[in-house]
Amino acid sequence: MKRTTRIVNIMITAMILFIVVSVFFAIRGFSVIRKTTTASGQDFLLQSTEYVGKVIQLSMKNRHQSLNYLAIDGNLKNSDAPATYLKTSQSSLTTFFDSLNDEADALFYVAPDGTPLYAFHWNSEKKQVSIADIQSIRPFINHDLSLKQLLDNPTTQNGDSYFIDKKSYINFYKEIRTVTGSIDGYLILPLNLEAFYKNFLQDFELDYKGYPMIKDRSMTVIMHPVTKQVGLDIISDREKLYPNFDYSDLKRLEKYQLNHSSGKLTYKSYWWDEDIPSEVLKISAFEWIDVGLAHWVVAINADYNERNDAIINFVIVLSFLLVLLLLLIIICSLFIHNFRKKETIEEENRRLIEKQKQQKVQHQLELELYQRNKMETVGLLTTSIVHDMNNFLTPIIGNTQLLLEEYADNPVLEADLEEILHSAQRGKQLSSNVLRFSKTQDSVQEWMDISAAIGVATHLIGEIIPKKVQLTLSIQENLGTTKLEEIDLQNLIYNLITNAYQATKDNNDKRQKIQVTVRPASKEITDILKKDNHRMNHIDAFVTLEISDNGSGIPTKLQEKIFEPFFTTKTADEGTGLGLFAVTSIVAKYGWHLVLDSEEGHGASFLITFPVRSPK
Predict the structure, then answer these.
(1) Hey, which CATH number is domain 442-612, 3.40.30.10, 1.10.1020.10, 3.30.565.10, 3.30.1370.10?
(2) What is the C-alpha separation between 211 and 201, in angstroms, rounded?
(3) According to CATH, what is the number of the domain 75-197?
(4) Disulfide check for 223: which of 23, 197, 410, 537 has CB 3.0–4.6 Å away?
(5) In whole angstroms, what is the distance from residue 155 CA to residue 150 CA?
(6) pLDDT, tens digit, for every residue of 171-206?
């Protein structure tokens, strides 16, 4: 009996020790996982920060480029009467202001010494440009401390950021020169950075709470989702608003950012977008960028606890279970101690406890095995589903085409078969696009007759579109040869014709028509190609492929978005959003030229221009 009691005591002690060790390693494991997760989150934020920084720089360059185009189009001189310029350039000014999406409502012209000469005001509601009072623009000149630097260095894109009534602005400059080359004056565009933030960064999304913000070199907020934060120093001004808050970590953050070009760290702060800011632990990444004369720090902050909630909850549950198990063991030990004289009961209890232990270990192993098998299955499906899909679709397409020929005299059945064929072909197109963008393939380019290659590709693709669609070919022969992969040309034509067919499906009162035209490129497009790509200066011949339809056309607001990957206005059964993205990818691969000509209600035309080697 004593020996049995001693064994039981040893087992209980061992299990208690096991629980204590398990709790220790659980806590330590939590610390390691938390650090790893935090580092991963900071790396993601740093990548996002770099992306946001590039977006800001590129967008600012685009606005300066728009100002350059306006200056070239306007042919400004300070001697011109503003009314005369407004009359002759009303359309250019309207287009210019409208393209800025409410980021600017003023444009003014100053003399070489900085004296304002005249200004224009933009009414976004009426879409109208008018002459403004000179006094209304003086704040934009007086607060821009970098204006003098502009006069010394006219090539600067923009000045430094500045504030007017707690609103942040930045001035874009464009010098205007006379025929002799001397500076006639400067065209200045003040950009509202709050509107710029709303247009480009307001909808920036993270998987958890957080937002991007931008500060200048004095650590003053210039762009922030909370308007009242703009113009505030991140420490001194906030201390005036919330004197009872703890700013020690913000001071550490400020010091770190001022001494590093980029980085990531964790610190305590507050969510300033709340009515009553709550204290929170944040993870952050930042990067300094230069935009003209402005030197800004772009930072993205995220909620540390929200990102680690899953881990924290797991550890809490695990600790609770371990403590509960420990209590159960203690209770069992007391129970066994009271009835230790009954050896049979003691033995049974030990057996049950051991069995419970084994079941828990087995259950844990089963969970790990299930998770491993699940991940392996996902991997296998990801790499093989496209190939399996092709195996399924090939006989469907072939047999459907045979049935279409056999039952050509049955309109109802033919319509159903065409729908089956179209769906199968869409599936095959999807699998081809997935393979093309997910698998590295050997590039084999050959010289081929461009007219013949387009004719063959169009003929092949024409066989799979419904016969009710009128496909017209106008291909001029012997236009020359070009070096490319034939599959690229076939993929490009397939996607454009498929897009044209889908655009005409809603033609209720007119027949569906698709026109494929191949002809020598116009001199205008040839000049654009040679200007944009110096490698094409030695090429003397270009050919244009035009694929047009008589569908409903593409709205102007969508014409820039349709080439983005996965953007589609079709249903899930009709489109994947990869077709036109594939077209632009192929065009970019070879350095071709792509133009979209479309007016809503009047169809669409896609024009692709190739450099060719003239036939000998």
Answers:
(1) 3.30.565.10
(2) 9
(3) 3.30.450
(4) 197
(5) 8
(6) 999 888 877 878 888 889 999 999 999 888 877 666
